[in-house]
From TrEMBL:
Domain (Ribosome recycling factor) ranges: 24-186
Biological role stated in the UniProt entry: Responsible for the release of ribosomes from messenger RNA at the termination of protein biosynthesis. May increase the efficiency of translation by recycling ribosomes from one round of translation to another.
High-level lineage: Bacteria, Pseudomonadati, Pseudomonadota, Alphaproteobacteria, Rhodobacterales
Keyword field: Cytoplasm, Protein biosynthesis
Pfam family, one: RRF
BP term (GO), one: cytoplasmic translational termination
GO cellular component labels: cytosol
Name of this protein: Ribosome-recycling factor
Stretches assigned to coiled coil: none
Top-rank taxon: Bacteria
InterPro entries in the cross-refs: Ribosome_recyc_fac, Ribosome_recyc_fac_dom, RRF_sf
Protein's organism: Halocynthiibacter halioticoli
């Protein structure tokens, strides 16, 4: 296909684009859709033992029913900081204490909040697209350098098309993930 001297590391480009998709999936998982999910607490960091610690490392996160998330805090001294971290996380959930268990009732989403969440999801998707395009740009820069180092015009065209096809594939999967997430958010 192309001279081995000028082979572009497509595996590295694909791995980096996969990273952008993985980040998008985790951002989408943290968006509240009116249904309880343990992953919605992933971004919550608790001041524990002098450092910021993910909430799932100071207690057990459970989803006992569709509109309830519970966090069973292991160390009683961390109940207050965990409750404060949840309150200040921007999730819009009001924690309720029951001994060492913090209960988080998930309220029904209203229409305005659903629209806001679809805009947030669109922003997450745009950030992922920008990341994919940056990886594409890096690949094209590698190709430009290889062309200056003597890569043939035909090989340059073949590799450019391959990088563009990979980019198009990831952009398309970002768009379909966004459509699915927005449909999930708007579902009543």
């Amino acid at each position: 296909m192309a001279d081995e001297d000028f082979e572009i590391d497509m595996d590295d480009l694909e791995r980096r684009m996969d990273g952008a998709m993985g980040a998008l999936r985790s951002e989408f998982a943290s968006l509240r859709t009116g249904r309880a999910s343990a992953s919605m607490l992933d971004p919550v960091m608790v001041d524990a033992y002098g450092s910021k610690t993910p909430i799932n490392q100071v207690g057990t996160v459970n989803v006992p029913e569709p509109r309830m998330v519970t966090v069973n805090i292991w160390d009683k001294a961390l109940i207050g900081p965990a409750e404060k971290a949840i309150r200040e996380s921007g999730l819009g959930i009001n924690p309720q204490l029951n001994g060492t268990i913090i209960m988080l009732p998930i309220p029904e989403l209203n229409e305005e909040r659903r629209r806001d969440l679809t805009r947030v999801a669109a922003q997450y998707a745009e950030n992922a697209r920008v990341s994919v395009r940056n990886v594409r740009r890096d690949g094209m820069d590698q190709l430009k350098k290889a062309k200056n180092d003597g890569m043939s015009e035909d090989d340059h065209k073949i590799w450019s098309d391959e990088v563009q096809d990979l980019t198009d594939k990831y952009i398309s999967s970002i768009d379909s993930a966004l459509e699915a997430k927005q449909a999930e958010i708007m579902q009543v």
